[in-house]
Amino acid sequence: MMQEEVHAFIKKHHLFHKQATVLVGVSGGPDSLALLHYLCSIRKTWSFRLIALTVDHGLRGEESKQDVAYVQQICKQWDVECLTTTLNVKMYKEVEKKGTQLAARELRYQFFQACMLRYQADYLALGHHGDDQVETILMRIVRGTNPSALKGIPKKRKFAKGYIVRPFMCLSREHIESYCEAHQIDPRIDPSNEEDVYTRNYFRIHILPLLRKQNPSLHKNVQRLSESMDQDDSYLHDQALVLMDKVIDFNQTTREVTFPVNDFLNYPYALQRRTFHLILNYLYHTLPNGLSYVHEDHFFDVIHSKKPNVTFELPMGLKMSKVYETIRFHFQDHKPVDSVIRLEVPGSITLSDGSKLTATITEHPERDSKYRMTCPADEFEFPLYIRSRQQGDRMKIRGLNGSKKLKDIFIDEKISLHLRDTWPVVTDHQGNIVWLIGLKKGTMSGNVKSHSFLQLHYIKGNM
Predict the structure, then answer these.
(1) How confident is the model at residue 463 (pLDDT cuts 50, 70, 90)?
(2) Which range, 4-13, 251-260, 367-376, 416-425, has the best average confidence (pLDDT)?
(3) What Enzyme Commission number(s) appear in the record (predicted)?
(4) Of 27, 240, 363, 424, which has the fewest beta carbons less than 10 angstroms from its beta carbon?
């Protein structure tokens, strides 16, 4: 009965193909031993090469060593290759500042991955079952999570150059224990599994029995929910990628993301939320534990805010800001342009961001543009200098009487706060502002007669 159910689950979800190399994670407990036994029963039919992987995490002293020895003994009886390793979880958790269970898992999967690559394995089979799925989804609901996480434990996912598969997701713990009893499999029992100080154990010991009284087939309903969520999630993910391709700008050099608010708000709310989480996945190497619904709520508060400048902080130094109609995610602002750089006339300089400014003297200047400025050669005193803005900076602007603060120009032009301190300012030898590049061109008092012209040409880098 159980074998038929698992076989149907494997076929439905295309978990294996024939003539595959299958690695099996085996701890010596009932779930993994039952899985290994089941795979042994079908290996001739499927032409599998089976290799068992077992790990001593170094956390339970002699008992852990006995678990490994027991798995080796079982593998010998069942004619299965067996690979073992000992991990230093205690040292790893101290160095990486992680909890015991997370540190053990990361090291264990590093070993699994190395074995997958070494043996060019097609699959890594693990013994997670339907009750594990119920526990996982309930824990995530209680902690608070995004809808994608309600997919729970995936039945199949890419890993190394193959896949992790979980053929027992259709079964309950009770089914597996009955299978072990029927086939005279005597598993090792980790005593820590009976301690309810761990969250998962608490759910297994106290919560699941109450739910099973209402529905003994709870694990099947939850697995169906997981599969439905997975299908919906896949569709939303694809649609969010389309949104990102059309609206979102990713700068890999500066590790920042920007997008126009109004364009973003044209898409359905569900895609906006999904895109927010994809942005976080892009910016963080590993999603921090501190992320929660609170940050998602802040995200929507910011994009709907009527204020011209709003900022909030996410974990690990990531900031999200709204400046006028642009949203920006970034870890740190760019450094200001090099303090003061001298520009000989004629001559050229290259700034640290790759931008280039060239000064020439000509009698036949080209037409002015956003990044090209022309003025009489004797209007300003040479050499010129390029710097970032300074407190109280003002400039005389062509076509206007008097002068205007750079701060007010930035506000009028709706320049983002994070760009203002890095914006290049060109001055003459006396400190008069010649050009606020790309925004305003300066002028001195005007009785200037000249047959030659100064022409400045700016080629934009990563500003």
Answers:
(1) very low
(2) 4-13
(3) 6.3.4.19
(4) 363
Tell me what the mean pLDDT of segment 88-109 comes to: 90
What are the residue ranges of helices labelled H in 50-198?
62-77, 89-96, 100-118, 130-143, 173-182
To the question of whether residue 167 is assigned a binding role by annotation, the answer is: no
Report yes or no on 270 lying in a domain: yes
Largest CA distance in the chain: 105
Query: Was 383 annotated as part of a binding site?
Result: no
Residue-range definition of the domain harbouring residue 378:
340-459
How far is CA 194 from its chain centroid? 35
The answer to whether 460 touches 355, Cβ cutoff 8 Å, is yes
- Spatial contact of 448 and 376, defined as CB atoms under 8 Å apart: yes
Residue 31 is assigned to a ligand binding site:
yes
Give the number of domains in the chain.
3
Higher pLDDT, 59 or 353: 59
Residue 146 has pLDDT above 60, yes or no: yes
Asked whether 458 and 356 are in contact (CB, 8 A), the reply is yes
Which of 330, 363, 387 is the last residue in one of the domains? 330
**Which tokens in the block code for residue 324?**
């006028």
Q: Model-level pTM greater than 0.85?
A: no
Check whether 377 has a pLDDT greater than 90. no
- 29 in a known ligand binding site: yes
Q: Any known ligand binding at 233?
A: no
Helix (H, G, I), strand (E, B) or coil at 459: strand
